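pls read this protein:
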Amino acid sequence: MSVRRVVPDIRSEAMEESRDFYGLLGFEEVMNQGWVMTLASSSCPTAQVTLTSRDRSAPIVPDMSVEVDDVDAAYAVMRESGADIVYPLRDEEWGVRRFFVRDPDGTVVNVLSHR
């Protein structure tokens, strides 16, 4: 399994204002579903920030996202390790397969692959 990108997920109650703020640092909106917005650097597209007002299907908003090439393998590794899975592996209607796991310090990580 390999990591494709790591993205901080920032909870925002001011999505447009936050987008404009990060725009001052060179980030541009590349995806917007209303409740989640991803901003990326035009010079380095894997340098990203995600703004989230809520999570559409999960009961918790993650703190960061890790995109991997094989989310099923990542899920198996986490389950075997006894890690705290806080949102089970599932396919989401917007084209990702994901699960959430809590790290030992309490950070919630959204582990995903695009379908």
About this structure: The longest strand covers residues 3-11. The chain has two helices and eight strands. The two ends are 16 Å apart (CA to CA).
